[in-house]
Amino acid sequence: MSLRYLTAGETHGPQLTAIIEGLPSNLTLDFEELNFQLHRRQKGYGRGRRMQIEKDTAQIVGGVRHGYTTGAPVALVVENKDWTHWKNIMNIEPIPGSDEEKRRVNRPRPGHADLNGGLKYNHTDLRNVLERSSARETAARVAVGAVARQLLAEFGVKIAGQVIRIGEIEAPANDLPIDELIAKTEESSVRVVDKETELKMEAYIDKIKEEGDSIGGIVECVVEGLPIGLGSYVQYDRKLDAAIAGAVMSINAFKGVEIGIGFEAAFCAARRCMMRSCTIRPADTTGPATGWAALKAA
Question: What secondary structure letter does DSSP report for 264?
């Protein structure tokens, strides 16, 4: 099975569209769960004003009949509520008026795709770049991911996430079971387990906003129940680590990906790194350890 998806649409256009290709037939889709994931995307402390405008829900307009996938490509649509204020500016037909009336953008913003996009695609109006490069596009990706999660759930795969750091504030480490991690982070405004850290992060975000700035952070994704054999070492483009890193780095503003112990591997000897990042326990825990488990026990 090989899944791929494409998205289309602009941040102030009428809608975002996604097409998923490769889903098996007869997969039951839970539409409430799909829209729940879109709702999760809009939560979080310190969110921008756009999140107050949009109340995202996804409509499936192809590839599903009577609640089951048909094996054909699945088409999803997420409406942009803010489109009502941009109908003239984002019209697909030519419109008269001044540059100001058309809301043309002539000055590229530092750290954005404006300049590169304008040069690459020969745009003098950089709105043509920023409308597509906007992080609003991730709403379509969340809809796609919500469908993928339901496919993974059929195989017992669970996914959780938590915030590790926001600016200067770091959350204490934890080793919670995945179900407990999901429950606790779902209750947190900043998706941390520790309530004291949550309050510190909220205060820190308020301080940064008062200064007219924004701040970055580190998030962690935990996946449980993956079968052995996903991806392959035989070709560079089949490696699971590479696929994950590429997908994460394609999200706006992400500038680094760690898998396992990640960048910490630069500071430890190979034997110790291997033991920390790849410990395999034999099925019969009463017998002698084998493989990496034997190395760890040595």
Answer: G
Distance separating alpha carbons of residues 111 and 205, to the nearest angstrom = 21
> At CA 18, angle to CA 123 and CA 87, rounded to 5?
50
Residue 289 clears pLDDT 50, i.e. is over it = no
What residues contact 266, with CB distance under 8 A and at least 6 apart?
none
Strands 64-65 and 4-8: unpaired
Give the whole-angstrom CA distance, residue 214 versus residue 216: 7
Q: How far apart are CA 125 and CA 114, in angstroms?
A: 10
Average confidence (pLDDT) over 58-82? 96
* Nearest alpha carbon to residue 84 among 17, 15, 8: 15
Q: Are 77 and 15 in contact (CB under 8 A)?
A: yes
Report which of 288, 263, 287 is spatially closest to residue 273, judged by C-alpha positions. 263
Q: pLDDT by residue (tens digit) across 99-156?
A: 777 889 999 999 899 999 999 999 999 999 999 999 999 999 999 999 999 999 999 9
- Dist. CA 192–CA 214, nearest whole Å: 19
CA diameter of the chain? 80
Long-range contacts (CB closer than 8 Å, 24 or more residues apart) made by 104-111: 105/130
From residue 289, give the alpha-carbon distance in Å to each of 78, 154, 168, 283.
51, 32, 42, 10
CB 158 within 8 A of CB 188: no
Mean pLDDT of the chain: 89
DSSP 187: T
Per-residue model confidence as pLDDT tens digits over 10-59: 999 999 999 999 999 999 999 999 999 999 998 888 876 666 677 899 99
The vertex-21 CA angle with 17 and 27, nearest 5°, equals 100
> What pLDDT was estimated at residue 294?
38
Task: Quote the DSSP letter at residue 29.
Answer: -
State the burial class of residue 63 (Cβ atoms within 10 Å of its Cβ: 0-12, 13-18, 19+): buried
